[in-house]
Amino acid sequence: MHLSQLLNPQSVDVQLRSKTKREAIAELVALLEKSHGLSSGGEILDRVLKREAMMSTGIGNGIAIPHGKLPELTRLYGMFARLERPVAFDAIDDQPVDLVFLLLAPADAGADHLKALARVSRLLRDKATCEKLRGTDKADALYALLTASPAG
């Protein structure tokens, strides 16, 4: 799966101004719904927050990949944001997070959901890629970085 199947140019934000993990997730969900034309009446946010309550999706090195599954979805969706200021995310390395990729999948996605998580994780674990993502202030440049990479 290529990240261009999850993202569109509108599903990338360069300066999320959230001050907490919950605010960041809520803002990402709202942006994802807007950029992909989804409306869930709060169900997406509830699912992602419930998943986050089970175990933090902060994978370390300033990166988090919150995710959730919803039965009414027909395909996978993504939203990427760079936070203006890192926020505490209960990450495995106890470091604040500034790069966040939100992933949503249909409830029956199974292997596709896991493959997408692995693809995003692999891309964001690359230090050079993360330096580039942190070094640009333009959403179109972030989108290009995320989708042009062989891992993306």
Cα distance spanning the termini: 8 Å
Please work out how many helical segments DSSP would assign: 5
Kindly report the name of the CATH homologous superfamily.
Mannitol-specific EII, Chain A
Order of helices and strands: EHHEEEEEHHH
The CATH top-level class label: Alpha Beta
Low-confidence stretches: none
Class by helix and strand content? alpha/beta
Domains, number? 1
SSE blueprint and pairings:
Blueprint: E1 12-16, H1 21-36, H2 43-54, E2 58-60, E3 63-64, E4 67-70, E5 77-87, E6 97-106, H3 111-124, H4 127-134, H5 139-148
Parallel strand pairs: 1-5, 3-6, 4-6
Antiparallel strand pairs: 2-3, 5-6
Quick structural overview:
The protein is an alpha/beta fold.
Looking at this protein, list some descriptive labels.
152 residues, alpha/beta, Mannitol-specific EII, Chain A, 6-stranded mixed sheet, 5 helices, 6 strands, 39% helix, globular
Task: Give a description of the structure.
There is one protein chain. This protein is of the alpha/beta class and about 150 residues long. The chain has one domain: 3-Layer(aba) Sandwich (Mannitol-specific EII, Chain A). The protein is about 40% helix and about 25% strand. It is built from five helices and six strands; from the N terminus they run βααβββββααα. Strands 1, 2, 3, 4, 5 and 6 form a six-stranded mixed β-sheet that branches. Strand 2 and strand 3 form a beta hairpin. Helix 1 crosses helix 2. The model has no long low-confidence stretch (mean pLDDT about 90).
